[in-house]
Amino acid sequence: MSLLRSIASGLRSLFRKEQVSEELDEELNAFLEMAAEEKMKQGMSRKEALRAVHLERGRLEVTKEVVRSAGWESFVETLWQDLLYAARILRKSPGFTAGAVLTLALGIGANTAIFSVVQGVVLAPLPYREPDRLVMVWLNNHNLKSITDLSYADFMDWQRRARSFEKMAAYAWRGFDLSSPGTPEHLEGREISAKFFATLGVELAQGREFSAEEDRNGGAPVVIISNSLWRDRFGRSPTALGKSIVLDGVEATIVGVLSPGFRFGADDADIYRPIGQRKLVEQNDRTVHNVVCVARLKPGVSMGQAQAEMNTVQEAIDRLHPDTEEGLGAKLTLVKEQLVGDVRGTLLLLLGAVGVVLLIACANVANLLLVRTAARTREFSIRSALGAGRGRIVWQLVTESVLLSLLGGALGLMAAKWGLNAALATVAASLPRSENVRVNVSVLLFALGVSIVVGILFGLAPALKSSRVDLQTALKEGARGSTTGNHRAQSSLVVIQMALTLVLLAGAGLLFRTIQQLWKANLGFDSHNIITFQVGLSSSATRNGVGVRTAFQQLIERIRQIPGVQSADLSTLVPMSHQVNSLPFWVDSHRPASVAEAPRTLGFITGPGFQRVMGISLIRGRFISEKDTINSPLVAVIDTELARTYFPGTDPIGHTISFAQVGGYRIVGVVGHVQHWELGFSSPFTDAQSYVSIYQIMDRWMTTIDTWTWVVVRTPLDASTVLPEIRKAVYGAGSDQPVYNVHTMQQIVSESMSPQRFPMILLETFAGLAMLLASIGIYGVISYLVSQRVHEIGIRMALGADRRHVFRMVLGQGLALAFAGLTIGVVAALILTRLLSSFSLLLYGVGASDPLTFITVSVMLILVAVLACYMPARRAMRVDPIVALRYE
After folding, report:
1. How many Å is the Cα radius of gyration of the chain?
2. pTM for the whole thing?
3. What does the pLDDT look like over 732-759, one tens digit per residue?
4. Are 258 and 196 in contact (CB under 8 A)?
5. Were both Cys, which of 28, 173, 175, 416 would link to 109 (CB 3.0–4.6 Å)?
6. Cβ-contact 521, 674 below 8 angstroms
């Protein structure tokens, strides 16, 4: 029979059951009549012939069942009947059903929520055409053993020489001040090369990309805008194309609109401008590394082949520009790996942790099923006596457990969707690709698969155990059967629960201790009472270096006059805000053969009051002063790390520190080291730090730093109180000057802890769920054991045992299970918590085997076990011996 005919026949048997049964009766009766006629030809009477045929062929109903069971529809019908029976059984025990479903909902819901994050961030393909061919190309500094951005000149050389790529594009972050149309506003944007979106394989919603003629110095001022900006400023009007907007005082024509939801990287951008139109000083200087390169491999070209070619290309560039490129190589990485970053390992760690919660939930439900199936021993015995095989009983019990699991999975899916929305609202900023996290078809299939597997997992062992029954013993009136095996299995499950719970608690405890250590750590500055923000200077002030310098001076003076402001000044960098200004340098006359081989310093370009505003300690000499201007000798201040590394045993004051393309600065002071990145993070680009005056920056560079300069204000007033006055001071100097990126320093420090806070919150949540489930598990087991030992307890009390002895006996039994679980859990936790230390930045100031953490979580679990055992122990000590001796 063909597959289609088999399916059609099966569906007909399922949905036209009576008609098919009648046809089968007619067919079988006709077959019996034919067989009887053959007998009658041999001389038998009709009655004898029919009797002989029935003896040979068996009963008609049996034959019908054999025929029906041959098709696939028989399995579906049997499964449906088993599900209906299982539903009736579960409906008769609403308390058991509700407890099991809620327990499973917690475990499956938590797993589904985390899988949603893993699927959206790690597993889902990038929303670009053939994303596996997209790579990012970096400069590889062999001297510093690190990859970096590249210069615009490097990108142009790569684009001309490389042949392994179908397309190659560049981008750089850039902020823009939009003054028209509408209210002035600062917008995040990107400078991009022509064919940037074609390289990604992205279609614009309207318009076009930049042409090669526009992507050059002197090209027509054009922009591409985001879909959200098109909606907010132009009401999605198709006539927006060709209209002009004013950015940084310059009119630019809109030539394209992006598709809704387009995103590349962690941050959104509203404005895209040709990178080739940036100032010549930024285009030609090979020491200014602020461009990122993205490329699409040609079909058939592997990463290894492209890497080999880029090594050759960069070697040729090194030879052409030995003073700036010597010692630099090229490094390729997949775009997806770069976008996901270190969060992949953290998410997989959390997926494993939430899997532990599910195992604990399974152990709890398995315990409930062991108790329930023990009470149904007589039922299984009767079914066995009536002919049901062991496999049939096991199948029915597994069907019940799978139905329970599916109900728990459905409830857990709803909880996961709600919890996911709440979690994303708090951690989306620190989670790459968070816009892809949602409950989709893949997540639904995962929840369904987990529900079925879990149902089989926790239902199979109790089913196999319950199917082994002694008919003679079980069928005796009032027989309760042996429960010793059940006790042993239940106790083992409780021990496993306690061990797994301790592992989760230990991990959460270590991360909690890490957060404590981070708050206590010396940052090198005082983060209290500081407000930071940026200002988009008026376009009339940013046309030349003198205008920018004057505008900044006037702005700071106006802010300092605000009542409640203790001090205020400027800086191109704010500590712990993930900004970098990495400058190659050398001391005195020790210039390296190539700038690429020079060490790096994190260069703060600040006003003279920055050290006082931030509370940075002055170790030696002086900080930058108001007298250090464009007309005075260049001076610099270095931190203790740079002094220790490059001036060992020598006073650095009076020595010279030189920066590429800038010149030499006389060192006039040494200040304390400032923590610029997350605590525990070390980088050759930020370990050594230096400070120069913003008022000594050359004019050609002054017009490039205005968009990434911050104002820092120290005030005891609340930010909401002083900000209106700050805005008045800013707008008073120019109504087209937006104030943006407003943060307190405490907020910045807090956000820098997100690599530890995100997994800590989730691990603490999972550990709390695990502890709740473990306490329910130990309570259930001890309660059941007490109910099974009522007769024994009655005898003990009749023979003279007092109530306190019974209380201690029951409590000791529960604590014995808890201590066994703790012993196993501590060993497992000592091994598994070392995984935390292998993940970058997860642990700081605390070891993977921190004694305080392990002692604390162990005591917590013991207290939970005592509380869980208390009620059953109290119930046991109140047993009436007379009633107990009659207990059956």
Report:
1. 38
2. 0.75
3. 766 678 888 899 998 888 887 777 677 7
4. no
5. 416
6. no
